[in-house]
Fold these 2 entries.
Entry 1:
Amino acid sequence: MLREIERDELEPLATGAWILGAGGGGSPYLSYLNMRNLYEGGTRVKLMDPMALEDDDLVAVVSNMGAPLVGQERLSDPAFAAKPLRAMEDYLQKKFRAVMSVEVGGGNALQPLQVAAMTGLPVVDADSMGRAFPEAQMTSFAIADLPMFPLTLADIRDNEVVVTRAASWKWMERISRKVCTEVGSIAATCKAPRTGREVKDHGVLYTTTKAIRIGRVVREARRRHDDPVAALVEAESGVLLFRGKVQDISRRTTEGFLRGRARIEGLDGDRGSTLDLEFQNEFAAAWRDGEVAVTTPDIICVMDSISGEAIGTESIRYGQRVSVVVLPAPEVLLTPKGLQHVGPRAFGYDFDYRTVFGAAA
Amino acid sequence: MKRIGIDVGGTNTDAVLIVDGKVLKGVKTPTTEDVTSGVRKALDLVLADNRALAASLDGVMIGTTHFTNAVVQRRGLNKVAALRIGLPASAALPPFVDWPTDLARLVSGEVHMIRGGHEYDGRPIVPLDRTAVREIARKIADAGITSAGICAVFSPLTAECEQEAAEILREENPDLRITLSSDLGRIGLLERENVTLLNACLQNLAHKTTNAFADAMRASGIEAPLFLTQNDGTIMRAEMVERFPVYCFASGPTNSMRGAAFLSGIEDGVVVDVGGTTSDIGYLKAGFPREANTAVEVGGVRTLFRMPDLLSIGLGGGTEITEDGNGIGPGSVGYHLTQEAMVFGGKQLTATDIAVAAGIAEIGERTRVAHLDGGIVRRTLGAMREMIVEGIDRMKTEAGDVPLLAVGGGSFLIPDRVEGASEVVRVEHHAVANAVGAAIAQVSGEIDRIFSGLSREDALVAAVEEAQGKAVEAGADHATLKTVEVEDLPIAYLPGNSVRVRTRVIGAIAAQ
């Protein structure tokens, strides 16, 4: 129910989390470096089965919020990551039992490990997205209409903010985003505390283990000089949607999203076809030869065809040879309520969820 | 225009003499341990029939793997003092954090992190801690360290902190050689800092090497200015290389592709360089190689350099073929071709033997492969060509046919007609394409930073102007500058038109 995360699981976790980021969430490399250093110094972090939580245990949901690009200059720091958790404990006058990630996709997969390293708390093997999404209301907890306050937010200087109440998940997103921008577009946060019961009922479970597993499959295939993309598809019951090379890419920022479109020209079995990918921080939808082929919340991953390394929406470039793999979304995101929060219409499209895994919900 | 281009490789030093756009002579000579004597010999050979030109050359352009090799082989590196400005941010990941331990131990002298640096929008994180800088300056002097690297958070946006810290260090240590990360560009603190520290640890070697090149030139009676080639296919003056040796990393493949473009007069197309063991396929756009996207490691250190996007396939002139023709490579007899290949009396069937038997190459003695079965020869040749066609297709990003530039000693393996290629171009002097690429290099200026509070159009204009300033500083003639690349990347979650712009301009060398 409680086991130590091994040193040789850290790198696979980073690789797997970057893939599950569906192009967003920021690269986990710097957070991985922190964990590697902490492990070299003798620190160990424990992974907790969510079912081992007592119903009234209090779980801290932590995240690093902000622009991934700022994170490349103001580097990930475990002591900073743990500040909002302490602020939340002070505010609540209660102690946390464990810590978990808001999203397993991208750098935030390692945020609870960094907090755990500083506090000694175990990391719950769960998150609230099973991937990465851009906004606060796009979580399984929001889909379940759980309360979204209080929230604590810390800056590297001696600034801390508690949002004691918000009218809705969207308001919480707007208020915290504003504060985040003011302190340099990067902030560590501790979201609304969850009870053990809430995590067990509404969390997306066993996603840390899943990210480690995915990372292992890809790295192992790479080491054997096998096809890492094929290995991932097989191990995770995914679908290889398309293979090709990036022919065109355009990006723009609107309303806090990095939006854009990438066109991929087919190679191998997809020769003669094109795939258009649209992204809003994460890859949101794909069209094959003009027809919608797949949409969010299916996890659309763009990977380097040779190395199997994930490619982010900020780093996808002209000329890259890529494979587009679709992994199944967590079930909670596919319910009618889930699709209201994270389906294509939540991203401004005028069509319904389309999947590559049998009939759409 | 009279220039000499030199490629100092691990095995050979090649040199070419180019006058008014024509290659007058190309030579190859072994690289020597001391570098100077090999370069001197190459200069003497290439000028043998044109001694009189020595005095009237416009420039000598050298491409060298010297600095890359020094880092890879951990030799000739000096100790450095690392100064990071950015606390309280980024404290957990200090300078050298992701370096291989042996290299970090060799290079790392003093490591300091102090308060200061900027936000993405130019506001200070906290004021620069000047007192701390002064204390560090004294420690550096006490430790006898002669080279320092300074890296501040968001310095590509504003270099204020780095410049002020450098001034304080210099007040205490007038002879200290200082590398500022803002001079090396690009967002990405750790990678930019790594490059800064690599540059700082190459200072002594850069001084020694550029002097060795200059000595070789003087000894050959050449008074023209000396330039070195960079990994982006352009050059900088030797005095700049003394300050920024890292820019010379991995210029070889770029020079080879640029040389092919020059020799053929074609600026857009596929270059296939068939060597002894592999074929390298690259893509030329506007006369420059398309860059690879992945972070490049030098000697195990992550850098922010981009390298040409090359696809290497296991097919070259020395590639081993099984007797039945069904197995092609990846083994190769390499530089033992002249002993082991059948056409030279050896026992191993190679790609070269197949080409000779098929009548498309004249190498060694054709009678020695006359016994090969005609069907096997045709089938093997077909399969080898299929490998090349497949590789070219993978690299192409345009739907239409593009010209194919065939270079390298094994380029006879490329057929005259290739699917997807509008024509196959073969050129003279293709074996010394690297040296040609060095000789014809131009001067560039590049910037990559965030602009806030400007419209997208104004930001692009400001970026191009800054890049032009850098190019002129590097020796370019302002009137000839053209913009070869502008890329803008809006930044998610940053307010008020924040846009990251990367741009590169190139131009001809200014008259001295």
Entry 2:
Amino acid sequence: MTDRDLQVTEDELHAYVDSELPDERRAAVETWLAAHPDDMTRVGAWRAQADAIRNRYGAVAREPLPARFDLDRLARNVWPWKSIAAAAAIAFLLGGSVGWFGRDVIGGSAAEERSPFQAFTAEAVDAYNLYVVEVRHPVEVPAADADHLVQWLSKRVGYPLRAPDLEKLGLKLVGGRLLPGPTGPAAFFMYEAPSGERFTIYCARSNAPDTALRYNDIGKATAVYWANNEVAYVVSGKGDRTRLSDVAVAAYEQTDGARGHSKDGGG
Amino acid sequence: MVGFRHNVQASIPALRRYARALTRNADVADDLVQDTLVRALRSEHLFHGGEVRSWLYTILTNLNRNRLRSLARRPIHTPIEDDDAIDLAGPEAGMRDVERALGTLVEDQRVALLLVVLEGLTYREVAEIQGVPIGTVMSRLARARAQIKSYLDGERPALRRVK
């Protein structure tokens, strides 16, 4: 054996611990470790780390699987949006995020554990159903006081909000109100078309992971949920999906853009 | 197709374990797993052979990176709650320590370490998942182990190095 054969690199020590070392180097590494107590200590520490990590998390793989992971159910609920163009547009808007439409269903046997998606959508749709029928008092603060409304809700929700401008879709801001949400105060904006058609946007802080837009059909109302930068949004309305998706995309674009503006001191 | 679905199903427990260690938050972890499964099912037709489990690890790793990136863009960062002000004795304390130690790692190092140590993947598989050469995986692994050791030895956490 030459000195070169005996020389052991740190990479080889890691490979030794991870059983990645070629057999022919095994003896050399073991000889080296016997002669270098410091390296022996390090190798021992790495093994102890690995054991600690496995002890801490190994049991997770033996937990019974929650119903939310039922593949048949997930597969049924991931049908694509009707319009491929809309899907492509939204996938583009969402950049690196999921980019699919997860269609999900609230209620039913699989809902013992509510995901942020389910919790937010349920609250938002309840609020929609409750207030959208109100003729005289649909909102706490009317659109005439829009600046105050947005300022107030931003303060309570703890995030710089913006009421999206949906005029292009024929929707005027009616106003908004503060509501309790699944994880804290929620802001609620209502919009109305000349026809009387109403849409609402419900948003609150959330630790939910970022998602693409998810469509939900719950009896009388339909909803689109997404989460971005620790804020979850639900756009609710009635009628067909295309109309709802137009509203959701328009709102998405503006809420996403709102962050940049607020950093510049606007909003 | 049936084989694909079966392989995805068989991978869920391991995905949950990996996600839990990656995020150290059970709710966030399971949401990540669900998003991973939805994405995998949606692109079933795009999957032409190969190791399903590695592919799922890749999706989950990327989704988590996106998640962290968007958290980082927020001006105020709220750390995951640390509800263990009182240090417990015994093995329980060791578990918490390792959890906190993982939390001090740079994400790419944490991914490399967990895939090797917890998920038992080879360096080559991890290199494919992370989209980097094997040498980079090994240096991430080395830095992760050095960082955890210094954390557990009670040293001030080393400055994070970028790689």
